[in-house]
Amino acid sequence: MLELRHFIGLYPFLFFLLFSCDFSKNNTNQKNIQEAPNDEHSYSNIDRVHTTHLHLDLEVDFDEKLIYGIARHTINNKGFDTIIFDTKYLEIEKVTVGNIDSEKEVKFFLGPWDKDSIIGQPLYVITDPAYKKINIYYQTTNKSIALDWLEKNQTEGKKQPFLYTQGEPILTRSWIPIQDSPGNRITYSATVKVPSHLLALMSAENPIEKNESGIYHFKMTKAIPSYLIALAVGNIEYKKIGENCGVYSEPELLKASYKEFEDLPEMIEAAESLYGPYQWGKYDILVLPYSFPFGGMENPMLTFVNPTIISGDKSLVSVVAHELAHSWSGNLVTNNTWNDFWLNEGFTVYFEHRIMEKIYGKEYADMLALVEYEELLNEIDDLKEKKLMSDTRLKLNLKGRDPDDAITQIAYVKGAFFLKTLENKVGRKEIDSFLVSYFEDHSFQSINSEQFSLYLKDKLLTPKHIFFNVEEWLYDQGMPSNHYKVSSLKFKKMKKLAEQFANGKNIFREKGSFEKNKRTKKTEFILKKIKRTDFSTQEWLEFIRNLPEKMNVKDIEIVDKNLDFTHWNNSEILLEWYLLCIKNNYKKAFPSIELFLRKVGRRKYLSPIYKELCKNPENKKWAKKIFDDSKNYYHYVSKNTINKFFK
Ligand code: BES
Ligand code: ZN
């Protein structure tokens, strides 16, 4: 086995070898080979040599917490003798060329890390351009940051261990040596061996039950970007929901998951009626353990979700609409590099709202949009404070930075408001037919903002003689003044209710009204008190957000006694409520906050809660203990973000 440390002293010599002999054959020189392609976050030379199909032979070892693998790349080579892959924290054992029965070892070389250890190490493979198969024998390490290995007791059932991967944006290279740029698309297949009592699933055609051998075969026949390759292994069962959809989860969560997502066929139908046929065959959802760092991840054919979206009353299923929408925006048409991330997420949020509107009505969709719009304004304020106003542009410049920095409300909400504003200008009929052809014309392609802008002008703005400030939206900071304004009567009422409470009114007093009794059909005088079920999740969020930031403990207690937000199994409400409790040091909520932090690994929640706790030294100490106990449970994505608060 070749180890990295063996290389370190050899770098100068190996570089000399590499650039002095091998490249000379192909009329290339050192400068050309090292020239970065347009993706700053990948070393790979996809413009010259690129993978078209990948076959993975994997063995998942839960005892060692390692994956042993062979990545068999079928390549399209325009005549170059060096192919560059991305790797990060992988051990490369050997590289061969040729088909399985006639493999031949070839030279390879791991180049140096980038300065901030963001991108990883390039793997150079030196080969005759005639070879179409390159086989990389490798294993992951305990630093492979895509992987979250969970012990039995960290799962719902507590009986079996669990493993899942998270690839987006550039984590796939930490479990597969691959050209890890969204600008390249590949088909893939895999043979995965796992302990026989566990089921393996991938972002591909999947089994629906375990088999004795523990060997599973996968096929993804549509070309996808590398960040969408995903694997999960655990004690997982399946329940079918509709003709082409269903849900996977640990048995303990299956019934609740099924109930929560039972409207899935309707969602798929709504999405198809908007922007054309669903192209991926099946659409299944995998409910992962609570440590999953996102609400959802759009792995093709198998969306990964965090169980926090199961609130018991379907009030958080817009996350599913969002991930489903990615089957078009993102998975069919993908950002070419992470600088154009808004093409994935902005379009998806817009599409998500359109699906939600179709199923639950415009009033509901508008409330979703308003909740997010408020978050966008906060994000812009935050970025301004951090002197990062250039990150409020849709088109980003992430050179030298971690693409994780692109995950802000700018891409999501400013992006969605671009399309909402455009819709408002051109009309729904026009924008919908434009989007249908946009998806059709760019299916299975990766594009950038400039290509989108040209296409928009060409197909919609110019022929219809419409002026639209596309450049301002793409390249200017903040929100353009012409942005579409959403409003909601229901939100106005909630705001008023919160203000009344803040001004000393007892909003929890019983009130009388005349109502028709449904059974007896008679009108009766009924005394009623405000209760949770009177309003939707979004309305309650608006209520909490409009309570004063500084409250006295007695007032918080009154709200809590009447509505018991502290123990509501609704993660969105919990987040908003916990933040208010921490800001006001309402200690009665702290045991429940602790339980939450020890159970849930979703970054969207952990990050603001830990951040708020760190503002007070006593709370910071308390939070540090919880973080230290939980950090091996959290996925790297969350751990890495929160770690920074304690530095
Ligand atoms: N693709 C994203 C998650 C992601 C983005 C992972 C960038 C890694 C890098 C996913 O579709 C997403 O946006 N999830 C959101 C939910 C959504 C409703 C806004 C989340 O997890 O909160
Ligand atoms: Zn998304």
How does this structure look, described?
By secondary structure, this protein is an alpha+beta fold. The protein has four domains: 4-224, Immunoglobulin-like; 236-327, 2-Layer Sandwich (Zincin-like); 339-484, Neutral Protease Domain 2 (Neutral Protease, domain 2, Orthogonal Bundle); 489-646, Peptidase M1, leukotriene A4 hydrolase/aminopeptidase C-terminal domain (Serine Threonine Protein Phosphatase 5, Tetratricopeptide repeat). The protein contains 20 helices and 23 strands. The strands form six sheets. Strands 5-4-8-2-1-11-13 form a seven-stranded mixed sheet, with no helix packed on it. The radius of gyration is 26 Å and the shape is globular. Residues 1-36 have low confidence and may be disordered. Residues 322, 326, 345, 348 line the site of zinc ion (ZN).
In short:
The chain has 647 residues and is of the alpha+beta class. It has 4 domains: 4-224, tricorn interacting facor f3 domain (Immunoglobulin-like, Sandwich), CATH 2.60.40.1730; 236-327, Zincin-like; 339-484, Neutral Protease Domain 2 (Neutral Protease, domain 2); 489-646, Alpha Horseshoe (Serine Threonine Protein Phosphatase 5, Tetratricopeptide repeat), CATH 1.25.40.320.
Q: Using the coordinates above, name the CATH class of the largest domain.
A: Mainly Beta
By CATH, the superfamily of the largest domain comes out as: tricorn interacting facor f3 domain
Question: Would you count the extended β strands for me?
Answer: 23
Bound molecule types = ligand BES, zinc ion
Strand order of the largest sheet: 5-4-8-2-1-11-13
- Whole-number total of structural domains: 4
